[in-house]
């Protein structure tokens, strides 16, 4: 949505518009064209509609009513539990993984060719590339909310 | 300490009255952005509510990289924009590039008597209302809310040059209307 810069003539007109704006704000500037001053004055007029007087109070009450319990503790507990689960899984794999793998390979003789190391590397790569966006945001932060 | 940080910390800590204070401080700007884009009063109220619900939901993501009012303004702008997109309302008009004459300064124009003319003011407000949503909002943020162009960049995400161009052309067009349609020698 980029637009070309104003021409020198347009820049001069822009300066007149800005001078009118500043004059209407009470700043001491050279006199601006009255048409632009009239316009600047009209543009400073309050809008016809405004938030209702109790808008903030009603909204705050609505938020309080709908407020969910603070889930931060639960999120931390979930993270710890998932980490423990992964650790136990890793230990289990290290302890009995050779047996499981051997039994699995016996069941499916074609698997060794598939899992020759490179396929596993590909799976890990894809996992890292497409890991969940919320996790990425948690690590890198996000300035603007997503909608 | 940065007042934005004090307020945000208070809201995140769920202190009594903190969120109400946040809404009260920023509802004016939010209302202006949404009202100028969508115009419909009931939609404005609903979208303003939606904005603050989202602000409450995502406030923990605010990183103080911009003023809180710009961040909230950005949320309001995004909410209103999505509403317009759903209704397929164009943000800007297709402009006739040839139709952009620069105006001459005039003599004999009495600003105060023109301002006292209620009918003229009404017609001028109607002409402002008749602008496309985006320039109408930009004019209000710049003139009424006194946001600078860099602040409007943070709210809208538009390039500064685009904002300046919209402001320039809208004001030129309105002044031209004063002369041609309203018969004011301005």
Please give a structural write-up.
The complex is a heterodimer of chains A (147) and B (186). By secondary structure, chain A is mainly α. Chain A is 67% helix and 0% strand. Chain A contains seven helices and no strands. In chain A, helix 1 crosses helix 2 (34-43). The radius of gyration of chain A is 33 Å and the shape is elongated. Residues 140-145 of chain A have low confidence and may be disordered. Chain B is elongated. Chain B has two domains: 3-86, RNA polymerase sigma factor, region 2, helix turn helix motif (Rna Polymerase Sigma Factor, Chain: A, Orthogonal Bundle), CATH 1.10.1740; 111-180, Winged helix-like DNA-binding domain superfamily/Winged helix DNA-binding domain (Arc Repressor Mutant, subunit A, Orthogonal Bundle). The longest helix of chain B has 21 residues, at 18-38. In chain B, helix 1 packs across helix 2, helix 2 (18-38) crosses helix 4 and helix 4 crosses helix 8. Chain B has helices at residues 3-12, 18-38, 41-58, 68-86, 111-116, 118-129, 133-144, 149-156, 160-180. Chains A and B meet through helix 1, helix 2 and helix 3 of A and helix 2, helix 3, helix 4, helix 5 and helix 6 of B.
Task: Please summarize what this structure is.
The complex is a heterodimer of chains A (147) and B (186). Chain A has 147 residues and is mostly helical.
């Amino acid at each position: 949505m980029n637009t070309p810069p104003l021409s020198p003539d347009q820049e001069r007109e822009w300066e007149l518009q800005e001078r009118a704006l500043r004059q209407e704000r009470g700043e001491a500037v050279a006199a601006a064209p009255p048409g632009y001053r009239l316009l600047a004055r009209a543009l400073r007029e309050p809008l016809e509609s405004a938030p209702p007087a109790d808008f903030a109070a009603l909204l705050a009450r609505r938020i309080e009513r709908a407020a969910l319990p603070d889930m931060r503790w639960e999120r931390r507990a979930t993270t710890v539990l998932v980490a423990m689960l992964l650790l136990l899984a890793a230990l289990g794999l290290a302890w009995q993984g050779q047996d499981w793998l051997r039994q699995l390979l016996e069941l499916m003789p074609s698997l060794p060719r598939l899992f020759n190391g490179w396929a596993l590397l590909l799976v890990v790569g894809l996992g890292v590339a497409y890991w969940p966006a919320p996790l990425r945001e948690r690590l890198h932060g996000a300035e603007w909310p997503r909608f | 300490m940065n007042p934005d940080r004090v307020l945000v910390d208070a809201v995140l800590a769920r202190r009594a009255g903190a969120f109400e204070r946040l809404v009260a401080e920023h509802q004016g700007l939010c209302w202006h952005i949404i009202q100028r884009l969508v115009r419909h009063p009931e939609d404005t109220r609903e979208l303003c509510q939606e904005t603050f619900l989202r602000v409450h939901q995502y406030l923990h993501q605010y990183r103080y990289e911009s003023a809180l009012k710009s961040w909230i303004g950005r949320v309001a702008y995004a909410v209103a924009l999505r509403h317009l997109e759903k209704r397929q309302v164009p943000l800007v008009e297709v402009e006739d590039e040839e139709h952009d004459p620069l105006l001459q300064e005039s003599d004999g124009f009495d600003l105060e008597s023109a301002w006292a003319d209620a009918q003229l003011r009404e017609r001028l407000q109607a002409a402002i209302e008749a602008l496309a949503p985006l320039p109408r909002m930009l004019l209000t943020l710049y003139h009424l809310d006194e946001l600078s162009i860099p602040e409007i960049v943070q709210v809208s995400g538009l390039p500064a040059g685009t904002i300046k161009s919209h402001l320039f052309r809208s004001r030129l067009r309105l002044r031209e209307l004063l002369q041609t349609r309203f018969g004011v020698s301005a």
